[in-house]
Amino acid sequence: MAKVQKFDAYDAITSQIIEAIEAGVAPWRQPWAGGSGCSALPLRSTGEPYRGINILALWIAAQRTGFSSPYWMTYRQAQELGGNVRKGEKSTTVVKYGTFERANKETGEDEQIPYLKAYRVFNADQCDGLPDRYAVEDRSQDEYGAASVEELEAFFAATGAKVSHGGSVASYDMIADRVQMPPIEAFISSAHYYSTLAHEVVHWTGHKSRLDRFKKFETKAGYAFEELIAEIGTCFVGAQIGIEPTTEESAAYIEHWLKSLREDNHLIFKAASAAQKAADFVLESAAGQPEQLQRGVA
After folding, report:
1. d(CA 134, CA 124)
2. Phi-psi region of 35 (alpha: psi -120 to 50; beta: other; left: phi over 0)
3. CB 101 within 8 A of CB 113
4. Angle, vertex CA 277, rays to CA 276 and CA 281, nearest 5
5. How many Å apart are CA 295 and CA 298, to the nearest integer?
6. For residue 38, what pLDDT is reported?
7. Which residues form the signal peptide (predicted)?
8. CB-hemisphere CA count at 13 Å for 86?
9. Which residues lie below 8 Å from residue 280, measured CB to CB, with a gap of 6+?
């Protein structure tokens, strides 16, 4: 009798991400308004946003299939809502982190053991008979033009990040603990400007006085990994405040990411986790900002 191969959630999701990058579509480059997969963040049936690696997994599925609804649910949840998943629809794998207690064999004391459990969900577009609140509203992406947006200016000011303008380079100076940006007039649109600013502010969260992330990434590979964190973190922040990321990844980073993902199927989970912490830090730092930013201003 053939041995049944155990399902590996790390392998499954990492393989999806490698496939998306090789196809020239990084999963965190999600067009959040207009086109397929237009939701700001994937949502559970309760309206609660997914987090971390599950955001990437569901964005990939939305891009691949053209789903436009932000809502995802299990087969049973669809039934409980009075609907049903259409026959023949394929599910998408997401994961749940948790812990369980187990007695340590040496000390006899209880210890918390982490686990990763995979389960399957369907997009609301794959279901019939769901309540009206799961219907998708038609939205379009309005370009700002190269001018400041008051709400976004207030948001980034509230984070506490020091930002200087001038020159032609966007960067974060770790020593001076300062973000350097070209003037907004130099950008082809406000969306490009605020996406770039968000990217540098995610880097800013790694300072030793905040998340203390840089000491782990002193090698060339570590630097590329930090860029991956910033890329994904930019999208997590943007998804909450209505910014579509527009900066392009360099070929060198993509090549390194693919090589690293193939060698370590935990890498994208680590990057997504670090990116989520960075995004949380940015959003919590600016928590006093107008409520409309949580709905998106784009």
Report:
1. 7
2. left
3. yes
4. 115
5. 9
6. 41
7. none
8. 8
9. none
The two tokens of residue 27 are 């999963």
**pTM of this structure:** 0.72
Residues 112/99, Cβ–Cβ less than 8 Å: yes
Nearest alpha-carbon partner for 228 in 24, 26, 93? 26
Instruction: Give, as one character, the DSSP assignment of residue 19.
Output: H
Confidence of residue 255 (pLDDT cuts 50, 70, 90): confident
Phi, psi dihedral angles at 266 (to 5 degrees)? -95, -10
Confidence category of residue 253, pLDDT binned at 50, 70, 90: low
> What tens digit of pLDDT does each residue of 233-247 get?
998 998 888 887 665
The contacts of residue 224 (CB under 8 Å, 6+ apart) are: 252, 253, 256, 257, 260
In the three-class reduction of DSSP (H, G, I as helix; E, B as strand; rest coil), residue 183 is classed as coil
C-alpha neighbours within 13 Å on the C-beta side of residue 140: 3
Taking the C-alpha atoms of residue 298 and residue 293, their distance in angstroms, rounded to an integer, is 9
Domain ranges of the chain: 1-141, 143-298
Q: Residue 11 belongs to what H/E stretch? A: helix 9-22
Alpha-carbon distance of 20 to 258, in angstroms, equals 10
Q: How confident is the model at residue 246, as a pLDDT?
A: 60
Rounded CA separation 117/100 (Å): 12
| Distances 173 to 58, 153, 196, 253 between C-alpha atoms, Å | 34, 20, 15, 20
pLDDT category at 109 given cuts 50, 70, 90 is: confident
pLDDT digits (tens, 9 = 90+) for 161-216: 999 998 777 899 999 999 999 888 888 788 888 988 999 999 999 999 999 998 86
Give ∠ CA 64-65-69 in degrees, rounded to 5. 115
Taking alpha carbons only, the member of 203, 170, 176, 169 closest to residue 282 is: 203
Distance CA 289, CA 281 (A): 14
Q: Is residue 76 within a helix (H) or strand (E), and if so which, with residue range?
A: helix 75-80
